[in-house]
Inverse folding.
């Protein structure tokens, strides 16, 4: 038996999305920029996907720019705003300490080019306080970038309140909604965002397809330059089948969102409560904040997270130690560190992220195995000391 509990890393392709994509791959080979029949058919595929993505986040189709995924969308938002606003003298960027690497590493690159960057702290709850933003923001701030849901602990930031403060100072607002789109109802306008990133493979679409939503009138420079694709906002012949998959996944998410959130929330809560009850020395990270319903991050005293991950994999359960990008490095999680957790807890925590195909039986099978696996690891670690 193999059980997949790592849906924040990626999700399996939905069968209906797969069908749409294979049809498009086989039949719609035209270049969407061509004026002839074949090109126009491919363009129609893009148009439909653009509407589907816009509906998912309450945007207009013309505001959706397709990208190669979440990382590119984040780069586009940050670098594109920085370039567009540089001449205005606004040379300050604000984000949080718990952003994804796609944001943090891009900010480092901009800092090397003379931008001032402020990272807002999160408290023990994993949430940024509006007061922290009030203190950091100035009238020279170009952009405030705050992720909607965190990939490691699932906490949901008060983007709306933060956006209101940013706008009072004339700054633009970007939110990385890669981990919330398709899991929660995401309304880009209600959030007060000017730019929003999303990625198909986090909600049962393909890898390598995503979008940046750019509110009409927002000044953003293209970072991928070349032809006039995507209304000159992102050059390059579009990944038509991937984008069709993104659109189909967005449409699928719309129909399942509420029921899935309720089902997964109940499964996650069952998992958490039972782990806390049956395995001594455990604690849930970020539990006191609003969270996406599928995610839990749990510390196990006296255990290396990587060892637990490997032991669970041998038993057939795929979990992770925080983000897929940094796992394998034995680096303590920057998110847990930012929450002020003591160093042993930043290295003994695993993330379990549930998804569409997970069942109560799988959760119960996991719960039945976990105490033994943890007990064995603790004996080994204890013997080594
Ligand atoms: C919050 C967040 N932002 C951005 C990304 C990057 O998205 P992609 O894998 O599509 O490049 C991820 C993926 O893990 C993520 O979790």
């Amino acid at each position: 038996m193999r059980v997949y509990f790592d849906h924040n890393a990626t999700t399996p392709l939905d069968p209906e999305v797969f069908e749409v994509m294979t049809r498009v791959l086989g039949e719609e080979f035209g270049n969407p920029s061509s004026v002839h029949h074949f090109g126009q058919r491919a363009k129609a595929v893009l148009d439909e996907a653009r509407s589907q993505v816009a509906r998912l986040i309450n945007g207009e189709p013309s505001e959706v720019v397709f990208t190669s995924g979440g990382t590119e969308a984040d780069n586009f938002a940050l670098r594109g705003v920085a370039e567009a606003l540089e001449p205005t003298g606004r040379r300050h960027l604000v984000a949080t300490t718990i952003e994804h690497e796609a944001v943090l590493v891009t900010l480092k690159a901009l800092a090397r080019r003379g931008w001032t960057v402020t990272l807002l702290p999160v408290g023990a709850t994993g949430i940024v306080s509006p007061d922290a933003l009030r203190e950091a923001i100035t009238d020279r701030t170009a952009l405030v970038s705050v992720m909607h849901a965190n990939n490691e602990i699932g906490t949901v930031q008060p983007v709306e309140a933060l956006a209101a403060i940013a706008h009072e100072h004339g700054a633009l607002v970007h939110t990385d909604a890669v981990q919330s789109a398709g899991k929660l109802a995401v309304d880009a306008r209600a959030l007060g965002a000017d730019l929003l990133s999303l990625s198909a493979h986090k909600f049962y679409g393909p890898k390598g397809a995503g979008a940046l939503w750019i509110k009409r009138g927002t000044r953003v420079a293209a970072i991928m330059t070349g032809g006039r694709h995507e209304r000159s906002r992102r050059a390059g012949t579009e990944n038509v089948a991937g984008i069709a998959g993104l659109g189909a996944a967005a449409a699928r998410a719309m129909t399942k969102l509420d029921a899935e959130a309720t089902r997964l929330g109940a499964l996650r809560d069952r998992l958490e409560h039972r782990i806390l009850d049956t395995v001594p020395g455990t604690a849930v990270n970020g539990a006191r904040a609003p969270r996406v319903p599928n995610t839990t991050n749990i510390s196990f005293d006296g255990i290396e997270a990587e060892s637990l991950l490997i032991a669970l994999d041998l038993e057939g359960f795929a979990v992770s130690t925080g983000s897929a990008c940094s796992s394998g490095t034995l680096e303590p999680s920057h998110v847990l560190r930012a929450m002020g957790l003591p160093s042993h807890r930043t290295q003994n925590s695993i993330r379990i992220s549930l998804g569409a195909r997970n069942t109560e039986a799988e959760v119960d099978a996991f719960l039945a195995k976990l105490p033994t696996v943890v007990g064995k690891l603790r004996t080994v670690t204890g013997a080594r000391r």
Notes: The chain has two domains: 3-9+257-384, 15-252. The radius of gyration is 21 Å.
